[in-house]
Amino acid sequence: MQRVLGEFAVELSPQQDELDMGRMLLRKTFSGELAGTSEGQMLSKRSLVQGSAGYVAIETFTGELVAKKGSFSLQHLGIMSRGEQKLTIIVVPDSATDELTGLYGNMQIQIVEGKHYYDFEFAFA
Name one Pfam family in it (predicted). Predict the structure, then answer.
């Protein structure tokens, strides 16, 4: 597995929601050895208990990964239980195109002082 670290900026745009859930459009700009943009959608739900919520999202990245061009999709599953967080982000199987075909892996995200950072472990089949 290879690993790249870097920063990204995120823009969330709330969407109309008839089901009392948080529905957002995602737009991200990545820098570093993973450089490009992604767009996607997120759906979230907060519980009545403070610090408990869940979210799912799908986003498609287009750009370069270690100088290889193409696109791929990421699937998110985030759970927060009374303040304790668990986040899983994986490459959607067989979603990669062009020079990224065969890509698989997972990503972790950290937010430090309002800035977003990625830690992406990946390989090619």
Answer: DUF3224
